[in-house]
Design brief:
- With 576 residues, this protein is α+β, with helices and mostly antiparallel strands.
- It is 59% helix and 11% strand.
- It has 18 helices and eleven strands.
- Strands 3, 4, 5, 6, 7, 8 and 9 form a seven-stranded mixed β-sheet that branches.
- Strand 1 and strand 2 form a beta hairpin.
- Helix 6 runs antiparallel to helix 9.
- 49% of the residues are buried.
């Protein structure tokens, strides 16, 4: 019987990274829970075995329940009537299976009913669910909003809400509005404190809200009268049981049909403040979005895996001109490139997840006791690494999953354009990943300071010093040379000190940095398991060699004066 975990040893490989020992040590507080909870681990081996067993169970559920339901869920979609949403019928089967398997609130402490898992195994669960059905993954993964409530809410709020999510209640983050998409500081949903009701009342509209009829909402609203920027926004918790929010409609989307994307109307909806006033956007949404972006990176890797699975299976079965098409160079070139991007993107994803695990665990410990000087230094290091790597992981994996979904259809030929093949659903589902939770362009904006201040260059330089197996040394030398080319491009941009030019070439520098980092990461993986990653390392390094040449040539050959030509191309006047 199929299993999305045991059938993909590349996922388990990521749980064997040396940093996992430190992650488990921090998360388990020296295994303090073992005397109170019989399912708490006693040591590192026990903890890793717990992760392994849950991930194997997830692999079974995703392969044999969620994946077989995906086409029916996509065809039926959710329904909206009388202001409420009803999921597609088989979505309820999926929810029932995940709740019974204990896959809700998995990162939450055991005292609230969670499993106290780190982000890394949670990311693996997320990836496998997305491989099965990215639309359902959107519903399931929004439980991650509880991390923000846990981090910034009061202990009384944690005790009320966290156990509900651990038991299977759903969540949403209500951020965007008709006139405030990426520009969240323009949010105008009004929050007014009512002395009579003893609570906050929310009034206004939200749009493009994923799983918008959820049980528990985190809502960004304007609490400060007369303000129009991010400093007037606060975060609120809305409980659906209180009433006051209705779904006006479900958006008719290109893909992720199983996930209801809603327009919401708030009419004196009772809510409570989460954290402190005025920090809703400045602090809380930033934390919420970073978690969401890592989740979309995991969703993207899952979709990449699904596209590769479908393309490979079809190529092995389809015959043309007397032989299966997998034997044609044009086809096995596409498949090899798909697998290389999948493996490289996955190692970037889990590298980022491990960085997040360490700094999040240290932040949580800091709520209980003062950190030692060594711990404060460690927190600062991994917080910065997580902040730098999250936009790389989200941006590159979302682009790769779109490319892999495109190639999956191409391998299918005319059949790929027919609705009876899963590749068309994967293609439609993939398209949103490079748009929501911050477009790829916004990921570039988030990452560019780490380009210009030399942070990525420093990380690359450290990776250059690592040794690889002898058979990969020539590939390592190629990636090292790419790093020098990248540094020259960064130096040129910094020396020009022209903000518009920097913005103009930022996407090229961003992709160069990501390509080179992933090149080093996949070579490191191949040196640990040549059988599992050796082929992908070879293909990926050859692939990024041409990518680096393309990007570097563009930066080297363009000047500040050239911007005028691009401006003119975009400024052609059109008569109304």
């Amino acid at each position: 019987m199929a299993n999305f975990y045991t059938d993909n040893p590349e996922i388990k490989f990521q749980l064997g990274h040396p940093l996992m020992e430190r992650i488990v040590e921090l998360k388990e507080r020296s295994y303090a829970d073992k005397d109170e909870y019989d399912y708490a681990p006693e040591n590192l081996e026990d903890a890793l075995d717990n992760y392994d067993r849950i991930l194997e169970l997830t692999g079974d559920i995703t392969a044999n329940i969620i994946a077989p339901n995906a086409e029916d869920v996509d065809a039926e979609g959710p329904h909206c009537a009388d202001g409420r949403v009803t999921y597609a019928s088989k979505t309820y089967e999926n929810l029932d299976a995940t709740v019974k398997a204990g896959l809700n609130g998995v990162t939450m402490p055991r005292r609230y009913g969670g499993l106290n898992f780190p982000c890394t195994p949670y990311t693996a669960i997320n990836e496998m669910i997305a491989t099965a059905d990215a639309g359902f993954e959107n519903i399931w993964s929004l439980q991650d909003c509880i991390e923000t409530l846990y981090e910034f809410g009061s202990e009384e709020q944690r005790q009320r809400y966290v156990p509900r999510v651990c038991k299977g209640e759903t969540m949403s983050m209500d951020l965007t509005e008709p006139d405030a998409g990426s520009d969240l500081q323009s949010v105008m949903l009004k929050a007014t404190y009512s002395e009579e009701e003893g609570c906050w009342l929310l009034n206004g509209c939200k749009r493009f809200i994923t799983n918008g009829d959820s049980d528990i909402h985190l809502v960004l609203a304007r609490s400060e009268e007369g303000t129009r920027d991010g400093r007037g926004l606060s975060m609120f918790i809305y409980d659906k049981n209180q009433g006051g929010v209705n779904v006006r409609r479900i958006e008719n989307k290109l893909g992720i049909h199983g996930s209801p994307t809603c327009e919401l109307v708030y009419k004196n909806a009772k809510a409570e403040l989460c954290g402190s006033r005025k920090l809703g956007l400045i602090k809380y949404v930033m934390a919420l979005m970073n978690g969401a972006r890592l989740g979309i990176a995991a969703q993207s890797v899952g979709l990449s895996q699904a596209a590769y699975n479908e393309g490979l299976a079809y190529a092995k079965d389809r015959k043309q001109f007397g032989k299966t098409i997998i034997n044609f160079p044009a086809v096995y070139d596409m498949l090899a490139s798909m697998k290389a991007k999948l493996d490289a993107g996955r190692t970037l994803l889990y590298t980022t997840a491990r960085f997040v695990d360490i700094y999040k665990a240290l932040e949580d410990i800091a709520r209980e006791r003062p950190l030692t000087p060594e711990e404060r230094k460690e927190l600062k290091t991994y917080s910065k690494l997580a902040d730098a790597f999250t936009p790389l992981s989200k941006g590159m994996n979302s682009e790769y999953c779109n490319q892999n979904a495109y190639d999956c259809i191409q391998i299918h030929g005319g059949s790929g354009f027919m609705l009876e093949y899963a590749c068309q659903r994967i293609y439609r589902d993939a398209r949103i990943t490079s748009i929501y939770e911050g477009t790829t362009q916004l990921q570039v904006v988030a990452a560019i300071r780490y380009v210009t201040n030399g942070f990525y260059s420093q990380y690359i330089a450290e990776r250059q010093q690592e040794t690889v197996l002898p058979q990969f040394q020539a590939l390592k030398d190629k990636v090292n040379a790419m790093g020098e080319r990248y540094n020259a491009c960064v130096n040129k941009v910094n020396e020009l000190q022209n903000q518009e030019y920097q913005d103009f070439v930022a996407r090229h520098l961003y992709e160069m940095a990501a390509d080179i980092i992933m090149g080093h990461l996949i070579l490191a993986d191949a040196s640990k398991d040549a059988d599992l990653f050796g082929k992908s390392a070879k293909v990926y390094v050859n692939f990024i060699a041409s990518e680096i040449e393309k990007h570097a040539s563009f930066v080297e050959s363009t000047s500040v004066e050239d911007l005028d030509a691009y401006r003119k191309a975009q400024n052609t006047e059109v008569n109304a």
